[in-house]
Amino acid sequence: MVKQIKTGIFGLDSVLFGGIPEHNQVVVAGGPGAGKSLLSFEFLYRSALEGEIGIMFSLDEEVDKLLENVKEVFVGMEKIDEFIKEGRITVIGEGLSDSVRQVGGDTTYQFGKVVADIEAYVKKTGATRVVIDSISLLDLMINDKIIYRRSMLALASNLRRLGVTSMITVESESIDRGKLEFVPEYFIFDGIIALYQNGEEDKRVLSLEVIKMRGGKHSFMTVPYDIASDGFKIYAQGT
How many Cβ atoms from other residues are within 10 Å of residue 173's Cβ? Predict the structure, then answer.
């Protein structure tokens, strides 16, 4: 039987019928403000509470800004600074983000350098949980779709070889479930969790759906969620 990794996030393990299959790479897709980075960071935080080591690669935001936002939202997570100081959670941005934002030159080489740097940091920290936030920037980096898909395959293969369980955030063009389209690259990875923002601008309803999860069963229901001071609240049946 496939070992499942409990995320510890309220309601998410119920939707996943126990957790994420170990060593899976899970895409977290959603529009701006849906909470992709926050959900992924909480995955690392809950893992750290269980003694696991996690690492987050921030390609979109500066590390200080990312952590400032996380701590402003998750004021109830009192051990964030402690876990970072102890090395249970590491957030990397500098260097990697510079490589991604380089203009011109061999983009395939630049992408390969990013992947190699990710592997080096994982080995250095001994991380078993990995977050990449986000791969949307990598899409802009490589214009050739065939090369991009090959690069995504290489990334997925490397993460699998490293034996980590990971979340990879992706920016969706639409925040509405009825208009959401999944590009083929998403299906390279083992799982897809979609975060939606439905309704009018001043009456947004946040909801979550697991599109697929290789190696494990999951609910096919779309369920509401909130982002509270102590973490996500995913209102699955029975929670």
Answer: 10
CATH code of 161's domain: 3.40.50.300
Which tens digit of pLDDT belongs to each residue from 76-112?
999 999 999 999 999 998 656 555 555 455 666 777 7
The model's pTM is 0.90
Question: Is residue 155 in a domain?
Answer: yes
Query: Is 239 within the bounds of a domain?
Result: no
Task: Give how many domains the chain has, as a whole number.
Answer: 1
- What's the domain range around 142? 4-234
Tell me if 12 sits within 8 A of 232, measured CB to CB: yes
| HEC secondary structure over the chain | CCCEECCCCECHHHHCCCCEECCCEEEEEECCCCCHHHHHHHHHHHHHHCCCCEEEEECCCCHHHHHHHHHHHCCCCCCHHHHHHHCCEEEECCCHHHHHHCCCCCHHHHHHHHHHHHHHHHHHHCCCEEEEECCHHHHHHCCCHHHHHHHHHHHHHHHHHHCCEEEEEEECCCCCHHHCCCCHHHHHCCEEEEEEEECCHHHCEEEEEEEEECCCCCCCCCEEEEEECCEEEECCCCC
Is residue 106 assigned to a domain? yes
Helix, coil or strand: residue 137: helix
